[in-house]
Amino acid sequence: MNINPKSKIKIVHLGGLGEIGRNMMLVGYEEDYLIIDCGISFPPADLLGVDLGIPDMSFIKKISHQIKGILITHGHEDHIGGLPFLLEHTNAPIFSSKFTHGLISVKLKEFGSIAKTTLKIIEPFEKISISKFSIQFFNVCHSIPDAMGITIDTPLGMIVHTGDFKIDHTPTDGKLIDFQSLSSLFSKGVLALCSDSTYAELKGFTPSESQVTNTLYEEISSAKGRVIISTFASQIYRIQQIIDACKRTDKKVAVVGRKMSTNIKMALKLGYLNDSKNCITDINSLLKLPDQKCVMITTGSQGEPTSVMTQIANETHPRIIVKNGDKFIFSSSPIPGNEPQVVKNIDKLFKQGADVIYNKISKVHVRGHASQEELKLMISLAKPQYFIPVHGEHRHLVAHSKIAQEMGIPNQNTFVIKNGDVLEITPHSAEVTDEVPAENLYFDGKAIRNVKSHLISDRKELSRHGIIYISINSLNINSSNPSVTLSSYGLFDEFTDYEISENTGNFVQTLLANSSSKDIDLDTIKRKLVTEVKSFVSKVTGKKPVVIVEIHH
Questions:
Q1: What's the confidence (pLDDT) of residue 519?
Q2: Domain end: 327, 357, 387, which one?
Q3: N or C terminus: which one in the chain shows less Cβ crowding within 10 Å?
Q4: One domain, residues 480 and 375
Q5: Which helix (H) or strand (E) holds 130?
Q6: What is the largest CA-CA distance in the chain?
Q7: Do 200 and 215 reside in the same domain of the chain?
């Protein structure tokens, strides 16, 4: 094949680099692009009121007619959660495995986006052609069924994306990575390897998912009361382990949480879950059974504010109230940033008399990502010319790049890049040549906002310092005693701070009385009140509240 010496491959990430979540990568050749994954992230605790993080679609809008296909590695939210937002800008077909297809269908129906695209199921090592790209998916082990890596053959060479993976020799579904087929696929040469970096700092191997099976059985069988287990709504392997434990212990299990219920129904329908002894029942029937016969699976493993587990911990759930003898199991590890809320929930459950089991004290969860020895094996198998660590915070990417260099990949061929960087690979070289918009965007109610939005900073100010609202009536040259109403939120306690509040009101009256009555300039008075009241309250309370003044003239 004659290759134009000016041909180039472009690799661009709109999310997933320097962070956990929002995974989204583009591979371009000449004028055409493929997208790999489009996920969401959990917002950090200091972004008050926002629901989730999404990739910046500015570049997608610009090249929308050039996008030829969307390839999905697996069905976790950090890889498919952003699809409804992506489909506002492209109707390119979506390719995925069977189980991932099921999860995507549920997601798109929920958002009313299912008619905007075509969903296609791909089998491992099935060859598909899209534009000038030749594509094959390959199965990997992860904490969800049907996880895949992807190879994209271009006229310049093969790009490999591992997806989220680990090497598990005893997976619960029995599906091992097909190293023989993978080795054959890689034998023609790998131009660039993009590999999962989430646990690149950890030495050794990641434990097998099968280790959790015995632990969950022991915890469920030894429970003298109810067992309430939280995990991810898409963690079908874990849910199967719980069902199997209930089958062995003659217990019933109910699913609490709409999203988890929907996923389980889909998994049962597609054959990814097996409940041969009808252990699954509804919550109403379960609560009528003796406590020692009851197991519940809930959402909330990450401390999400509206989740079932958080409601139980806060004693606000309408059906489930903690009893002595209850055993709660957190069958997951907190995503970085979520640890404080998860720990709070665990503490609250202990205070209510529950027994709480979590990963630090029992093997009720194992990681779904490769550790260093598995990462080395993938690099050794692929033998790439260029290496790009993906999926992880910056320190994870750096750690993974060092592993690649130890494996013989030259430093100049290893690229620790950031979201928005355009990495161009030509027949002779690779370098970052440009940058596209890749802002941190967040879904806030029904609006999409930039992390730099003044609304986010306003909320932070309100949460730290509170607000004072001053309403002034009858302010004119004939009124020597205008009516002033002062209200505050998040600043004064109505019982203990009554005197401070009253003094602030008197201070406002004094300021108004000292203002010139000639040619009253309302804007000047407002600015003076805001500055002086904030200064007065700061001296008394140490807080600098937001001050809003409304003058009825």
A1: 47
A2: 357
A3: N
A4: no
A5: strand 127-130
A6: 93
A7: no
Rounded alpha-carbon distances, angstroms, from residue 306 to 258, 387, 507 = 12, 40, 42
Residues 451/41, Cβ–Cβ less than 8 Å: no
d(CA 122, CA 34) in angstroms, rounded, equals 16
pLDDT over threshold 90, residue 398? yes
Task: Judge contact between 413 and 430, C-beta under 8 A.
Answer: yes
Domain of residue 75, residue span = 9-204+367-450
Domain end position, chosen among 416, 450, 484: 450
Q: Which residues does 388 contact at the CB level (< 8 Å), separation at least 6? A: 11, 192, 193, 194, 195, 414, 415, 417, 423
Find where tokens 């000047």 sit: 524
What tokens appear for 375 in the block? 């990462």
| Separation between Cα atoms, residue 86 and residue 66, nearest integer Å | 14
**Section 385-402 average pLDDT:** 97
Question: How high is the pLDDT of residue 538?
Answer: 84
3-state secondary structure of 431: strand
Residues 145 and 173: their CA atoms lie apart, in Å, by: 8
331 in Cβ contact with 238 (< 8 Å): yes
Q: How far apart are CA 474 and CA 305, in angstroms?
A: 45
Which residue among 79, 365, 369, 391 is the active-site one? Answer: 369
Do 220 and 351 reside in the same domain of the chain?
yes
Which CATH number goes with the domain that contains 233?
3.40.50.10710
Is position 369 annotated as part of the catalytic site? yes
CATH of residue 72's domain is 3.60.15.10
Conformation bin of residue 399: beta by default, left when phi > 0, alpha when psi is -120 to 50: alpha
- Note the pTM of the prediction, 2 decimals: 0.85
Domain co-membership, 433 together with 494 = no
Whether the pLDDT of residue 94 is over 60: the answer is yes
380 domain-assigned: yes
Q: Are strands 9-15 and 24-29 parallel, antiparallel or unpaired?
A: antiparallel
Total tally of structural domains belonging to the chain: 3
End-to-end CA distance of the chain: 80
Q: Is 428 a catalytic residue?
A: no
265-276: average pLDDT: 94
Give me the chain's average pLDDT, please: 89
How confident is the model at residue 219, as a pLDDT?
95
- Asked if the structure places residue 222 within a domain, the reply is yes
Shared-domain flag, residues 534 and 424: no
In this predicted model, what pLDDT tens digit does every residue of 336-375 receive, in sequence order?
667 888 999 999 999 999 999 998 888 888 999 999 999 9
Give the active site residue among 146, 168, 196, 326: 196
Do 417 and 477 lie in a common domain? no
- The pLDDT assigned to 474 comes to 61
Q: What percentage of the chain carries pLDDT values higher than 70?
A: 92
Cα distance between residue 169 and residue 209, in whole Å: 9
Q: Is residue 279 part of a domain?
A: yes
Tokens of 141: 């082990």
471 in the same domain as 333: no
For 425-479, the pLDDT digits (tens) are: 999 999 999 999 998 887 766 677 676 666 777 777 777 788 888 888 765 545 5
pLDDT at 339: 83
Q: Is residue 266 part of a domain?
A: yes
Same domain, 70 and 157: yes
Q: Are strands 355-357 and 327-330 parallel, antiparallel or unpaired?
A: parallel
